[in-house]
Structure formats: C-alpha cells, structure tokens
Predict the structure.
Amino acid sequence: MSGRIYVGIGGWTYEPWRGHFYPEKLSQKKELGYASQQLSSIEINGTYYSLFKPPSWTKWRDETPDGFVFSVKGSRYISNRRELAAGAEGIANFVNQGLSVLKDKLGPINWQLMGTKKFGAEDI
C-alpha cells in the first residue's frame, strides 16, 4: 500500500499558541501561513458553524504552500439532524459554498456526529 500521511491540527487561530507555537509578534492574519509551513494539513473547523464565501476559500488556498491540504469539518446543520437522510439541501449548500476553490488543497471532509446519534434505516 502506498499513500501520503498528513500531520495537522484542527484550526489555526488559538490565542494560547501565540508566543509558543507562533512566534512573538506574528500578526493573527499570518498564522495560517506560518502554521501551514510547519504542518501538512489543517482542519477548517469554522465550517462546522457557518458557511464561508469563495473569497475566504481563495485566501486560504493562496496562503498555503504546494502539497498542503485542508480537511474541512462538515456543517453541524447537516450532521446534527434528527434524520441525516433529510439533509440534501444542507449538503448542497455546504458543498457549493466554495470548497472547489481549494482545488488540489481540498482533502477529506470530516463529519462530527452527535455522541447520542443512533443510526437507523431512515439514515441511509
């Protein structure tokens, strides 16, 4: 089997990392660029809470080096539904917000389901 292993973090904006992981006085808007040079992947976890416009996706893509990939956290408005199978419109909105703008920097989509979710035939 062959493949590539990516090492990353969930998100890149963490105040406690400033002056520790991030160099002193690095501006917050440069944190993604810095982190993406230390790691091979970062999860965009803000997508769990809201949609983003294509300019945000373009900015993230352009601030990261070649060979870097993003994982994208799926929207809670899809994953926390009582019936997952009823989420077609939400999935379309999620996918069409601009993920394709990442091009070859789009990695996996992570779906975080509620710990209490029980699966049934209606979820398929």
The chain has one domain: 8-123. The first helix runs from residue 31 to 38. Strands lie at 8-10, 41-44, 69-73, 106-110. The radius of gyration is 16 Å.
